[in-house]
């Protein structure tokens, strides 16, 4: 009787660990910005699974560093502001980046500067139809 309970507890723990590694534990996050196409955000999980999101450049209004207060300290994170299709001056959605890795502010500033360079090139480049 006790061995069945112990076996069930071990089985449930193993299943929980597999689910955690496959769906929750993110090992690596990457950001690829191509001025003429868009922004690709990829998350690699501990199990090897990858999740990729692509945002077309036409939807991107800006990339900003945002700050929040969490557990009595200020944290910084990079966000993509998506343009509202009905209001060109408005923002329809804020997409946070690097939520699992939580890089330091100096690292975020480097990524922010690179993103802004690409966005500026896109704005100054002649639009072809």
What report would you give on this structure?
The protein is built from 2 helices and 6 strands. With 129 residues, it is of the alpha+beta class. It has one domain (1-124). The model has no long low-confidence stretch (mean pLDDT 88).
- Biggest sheet: strands, sense, closure? 3 strands, antiparallel
How confident is the prediction overall: mean pLDDT?
88
Secondary-structure element series: HEEEEEEH
Helix share, percent: 25-40%
Please indicate the count of domains: 1
Strand order across the largest sheet:
1-2-3
Number of strands: 6
Number of helices: 2
Structural class: alpha+beta
Distance between the termini: 74 Å
General shape? elongated
Low-confidence stretches: none
- What Rg is obtained from the alpha carbons, in whole angstroms? 20 Å
The amount of beta strand, in percent, is 35-45%
Protein name: PIGH acetylglucosaminyltransferase
Transmembrane segments: 6-24
Pathway: Glycolipid biosynthesis; glycosylphosphatidylinositol-anchor biosynthesis
GO molecular function: transferase activity
Q: Descriptors for this entry?
A:
129 residues
Describe the structure concisely for a colleague.
With 129 residues, this protein is of the alpha+beta class. The protein has helices spanning 2-23, 105-124; strands at residues 26-34, 38-45, 50-56, 60-70, 73-83, 91-96.
């Amino acid at each position: 009787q006790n061995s069945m309970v112990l076996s069930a507890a071990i089985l449930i723990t193993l299943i929980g660990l597999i689910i955690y590694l496959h769906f929750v534990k993110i090992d690596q996050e990457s950001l690829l910005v191509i001025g003429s196409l868009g922004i690709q955000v990829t998350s690699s999980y501990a199990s090897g699974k990858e999740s990729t999101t692509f945002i077309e450049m036409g939807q991107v209004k800006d990339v900003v560093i945002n700050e929040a207060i969490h557990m009595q300290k200020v944290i910084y994170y990079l966000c993509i502001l998506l343009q509202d299709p009905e209001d060109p001056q408005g923002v329809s959605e804020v997409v946070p980046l690097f939520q699992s890795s939580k890089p330091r502010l100096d690292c975020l500033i480097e990524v922010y500067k690179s993103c802004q360079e690409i966005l500026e090139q896109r704005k100054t480049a002649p639009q072809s139809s």
